[in-house]
């Protein structure tokens, strides 16, 4: 009996190529048909018949998909309902599921045709990269940044038998890039100073570089050495995205705005194809002399109730991308946590009726300068309001008008 491989060997390579591509197109078309059925099944809540909570759970159980894959298929199935151009290309087998999965995260009626035309003439990797940059260039990416920050972690696992330790760390992308650059510099410096280790593996050099970083920190090394231009982090972002519109960005746009508040920037102008047109001079957003004056004035983080004096950034209240100037009356110090809250978690800073900077939560409630009093959080039913001056309104957190009274009792805010 002839082995199957011997028959395959007789098929010309070009015929195999056409067969594989043709079958892939049919798989794409069948996948679109599958997603249409999934959408109809979900719209008719067919999963309730099985006692499940949603369609993704049904796909996970009934079709042997992982939960992540099931959730994505349900999401893409519903997104395609309002994208006729993409649906037609997918149904014809011209677009793959991978491309459609990426495109449906950013496509709408206005840009659908342009995105489909781009996807038909490039690779899935390029499509995913462009869609990621488009999503990062909108305020919707703030939720992605928050989730990435919430997932940050570091685990240390010791293996006593081998005498080794494994360190696993998960960081937001903007932090991970900084670590990579620091490791690059430490690795190159280590190889230059110890040529006998030049032939070690790349992973071994990375481990040595990590130890160098730790030793440098514990010995109080000069952090300025880590700011060499050769290891500077460059993030590509459209000016329109920084200014509050829509555009493309290499990181979530609010993360970029936070990083740009107090650091050195290089303006890189590109055309629509990504070709560099002009590279501006490196400029320090907050000069050292102004930073010293800012530290002398604010002493530390300006967020109410925060006492951090280290690891603080100079924050532009009106961002420089929106025309805000680098002046003391437009700057304040914020610690890393509260700087992130302002840029990526919906907190904002605005002037109150006394022309003082006031912080507001995402729901619009002002953050008083010296915290809430116990009586401010009593329920309305506890005690009736008889005197609106001496007995301020109660029932939950105060609004902006109530906070003005708290601010007056506690003294004026820092100018």
Q: Could you report the average pLDDT, rounded to the nearest whole number?
A: 77
Helical coverage, percent range:
40-55%
Within the largest sheet, what's the order of strands? 9-10-11
Radius of gyration: 28 Å
C-alpha termini separation: 91 Å
Oligomer: single chain
Note the run of SSEs as H and E. Answer: HHHHHHHHHEEHHHHEEEEHEEHEEEH
Biggest sheet layout: 3 strands, antiparallel
Report the structural category: mainly alpha
Into which percentage range does the β-strand content fall?
5-15%
DSSP, total strands: 11
How many helices? 16
Shape: globular
Low-pLDDT stretches? 223-231, 275-284, 380-389, 392-415
Detailed description of the structure:
This protein has 16 helices and eleven strands. It has 415 residues and is mainly alpha-helical. Helix 2 (13-43) packs across helix 4 (67-79) and helix 3 crosses helix 4. It is globular.
Please tag this protein with its features.
three-stranded antiparallel β-sheet, 16 helices, disordered C terminus
């Amino acid at each position: 009996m002839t082995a199957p491989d011997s028959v395959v060997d007789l098929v010309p390579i070009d015929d195999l190529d056409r067969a594989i591509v043709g079958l892939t197109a049919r798989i794409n078309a069948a996948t679109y048909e599958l997603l249409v059925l999934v959408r109809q099944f979900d719209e008719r809540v067919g999963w309730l018949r099985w006692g499940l909570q949603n369609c993704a759970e049904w796909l996970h159980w009934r079709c042997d998909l992982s939960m992540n894959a099931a959730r994505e298929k349900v999401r893409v199935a519903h997104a395609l309902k309002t994208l006729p151009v993409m649906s037609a290309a997918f149904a014809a087998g011209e677009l793959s599921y991978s491309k459609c999965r990426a495109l449906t995260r950013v496509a709408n009626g206005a840009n659908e045709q342009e995105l489909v035309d781009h996807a038909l003439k490039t690779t899935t990797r390029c499509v995913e990269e462009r869609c990621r940059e488009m999503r990062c260039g909108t305020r919707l990416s703030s939720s992605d940044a928050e989730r990435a920050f919430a997932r940050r972690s570091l685990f240390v696992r010791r293996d006593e038998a081998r005498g080794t330790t494994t360190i696993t760390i998960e960081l937001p992308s903007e932090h991970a890039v900084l670590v990579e650059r620091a490791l690059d510099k430490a690795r190159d410096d280590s190889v230059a100073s110890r040529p006998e280790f030049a032939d070690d593996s790349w992973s071994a050099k990375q481990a040595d570089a990590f130890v160098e970083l730790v030793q440098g920190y514990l010995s109080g090394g000069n952090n300025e050495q880590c700011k060499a231009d050769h290891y500077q982090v460059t993030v590509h972002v459209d000016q329109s995205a920084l200014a509050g519109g829509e555009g493309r960005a290499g990181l979530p746009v609010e993360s970029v705005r936070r990083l740009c508040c107090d650091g050195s920037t290089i303006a890189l102008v590109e055309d629509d194809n990504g070709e560099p047109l002009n590279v501006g001079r490196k400029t320090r957003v907050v000069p050292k002399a102004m930073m010293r004056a800012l530290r002398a004035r604010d002493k530390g983080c300006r967020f109410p109730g925060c006492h951090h004096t280290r690891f603080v950034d100079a924050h532009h209240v009106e961002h420089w991308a929106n025309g805000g100037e680098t002046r003391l009356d437009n700057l304040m110090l914020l610690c890393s946590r509260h700087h992130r809250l302002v840029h990526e978690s919906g907190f904002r800073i605005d002037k109150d009726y006394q022309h003082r900077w006031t912080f507001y939560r995402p729901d619009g409630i002002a953050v008083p300068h010296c915290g809430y009093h116990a009586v401010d959080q009593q329920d309305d039913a506890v005690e009736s309001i008889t005197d609106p001056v001496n007995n301020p309104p109660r029932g939950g957190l105060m609004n902006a008008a109530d906070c003005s009274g708290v601010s007056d009792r506690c003294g004026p805010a820092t100018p």
